[in-house]
Amino acid sequence: MVALRRAIWPLTRKLAVRLARKRRHGRKGPLDFRRTVRHSLSYGGVPAEPKFKYPKPSKPEIMVIADISGSVAAFARFTLHLVYALNNQFSKVRSFVFIDGLDEVTDFFENVDDITEAIHRVNTEADVIWVDGHSDYGHAFEIFDERFAKDIGPKTTVIILGDARNNYHASQSWVIKNIEDKARKVFG
Q1: Which end of the chain has fewer CB atoms surrounding its CB within 10 Å, N or C?
Q2: Calpha distance 106→86 (Å, rounded)
Q3: What is the tens place of the pLDDT at every residue in 22-58?
Q4: Residue 114: strand, helix, or coil
Q5: Residue 107: CA atoms inside 13 Å, Cβ hemisphere, count?
Q6: What DSSP line would sit under 96-113, residue for residue?
Q7: What are the extents of the domains in the chain?
Q8: In the β-sheet with 93-98, what is the strand arrangement from edge to edge?
Q9: CB 87, CB 109: distance < 8 Å
Q10: What residues contact residue 67 under an 8 Å CB cut-off, 6+ apart?
Q11: For the domain bounded by 61-187, which CATH number is listed?
Q12: 67 and 161 in contact (C-beta within 8 Å)?
C-alpha cells in the first residue's frame, strides 16, 4: 500500500506541474496602457517596456470515470488509489465508478485520511450494478451522458480508466464522441 502510494505520487505531481506550466505560459493579452505608463515613469516617461494584460489562468477540472468490475479487480485497486491521489492534488476532481451502472463517488474521497476507508465505501455504498454485474461500458456511459455530461465544459479533462471489455453489449460510442466534443481533452 505504501509502495503504491509512493509510485502514484510522482505521476500526480507530474500531471499537476504540466497543467500548471501550461497555465503559466499563456498568450499575452491586450496592451495594459495604465501599467505601461506607470512603469515608463521610472524611465523618464519613455514607454521602454510595454505591459500586457495576461489572461487569468483557469484551474483544470478533472472527471475520472473508472471501471471497477471483476475483470479489472487487480487494476481497480490501483485505479482507486489514482483517483484518491488526484483528489489530493487538484481542487476540482469529480470521480465516477461503474460496472454496468454508474455512480458518482467524489464525496467518498474528500476529507478522508486513509484510502482504505474510501475504497471500502466505494465497494459497499456505490450503486454500480444495474443488471448482472458484468461490465457494460455502453450503459454506464449512457447514464453518465444523462446525468453528468451537462457539467463538462471547455476546461474539463476526462480520464476513462478500464480494460474496455464490454461483454458483447452495445458500445454507445456516440457518448464518447459527445464527451470529446464538450471536453478540453479525453484520455482513455
Answers
A1: N
A2: 11
A3: 555 555 778 888 988 888 888 888 877 888 887 776 6
A4: coil
A5: 4
A6: EEESSSEEE-HHHHTT-S
A7: 28-56, 61-187
A8: 102-104, 93-98, 61-67, 156-161, 185-187
A9: yes
A10: 76, 79, 97, 98, 99, 135, 137, 161, 162, 163
A11: 3.40.50.410
A12: yes
